[in-house]
Amino acid sequence: MIRSEKEYQEAVNRIEEEQKVINRQRTHFEELGYTGEGLGRLMEPLHSFHNQLKEEVEAYEGIKRGDFGTLHEFTNIGRWLIGVRIYLGMSQKEFADVLDVSAAQVSRDEINEYHGITMDKAQRILETFNVRFKAEIDEPISRLDYRNNPIMYAG
């Protein structure tokens, strides 16, 4: 996940450089006689990395515009919290100052994508920056299904 403008610029530059590498490699492999499926298999790792980097850049650009996507699981709350900071255009230090914690703490939390964050801490961050969530139920399960599913039923 891209966490700063510096990382974003580095990623954009790297995409441009990777495209040049891809073009050179394709030419090299074609000169060696590879075509079709064989060429595709040789090029796949380069394309895969290139596409992953492009997706990260697009995600960062979306967050900057306020497009956080839908939060489907609380295990992904860390990316949302990082996104709040990015959307607000705040550095980790500025974010830390508002929360009255150290910049080192914010850095550690973000490196770990807030893994293991307490609900109280997440709630404090969300309230501080006036972030609200809407909950939806896609397909509610019936009471009968709930009681017959031993994984979901804890009582």
Question: What are the main properties of this structure?
Answer:
mainly alpha; 7 helices; 155 residues; flat
Please outline the major beta sheet. none
CA-based gyration radius: 22 Å
Query: Helix- and strand-based class?
Result: mainly alpha
Count of domains:
2
Q: H/E series, N to C?
A: HHHHHHH
**Beta-strand content estimate:** under 5%
Anisotropy-based shape: flat
Q: Percent helix among the residues?
A: 55-70%
Number of helices: 7
Distance between the termini: 39 Å
What's the rounded overall pLDDT mean?
88
Low-confidence stretches: none
Number of strands: 0
Write structural notes for this entry.
The chain has 155 residues and is an all-alpha fold. It is 65% helix and 0% strand. It has 2 domains: 1-67; 70-133, 434 Repressor (Amino-terminal Domain), CATH 1.10.260. The protein contains 7 helices and no strands. Helix 1 (5-31) runs antiparallel to helix 2 (36-65) and helix 4 packs across helix 5. It is flat, with a radius of gyration of 22 Å. The mean pLDDT is 88.
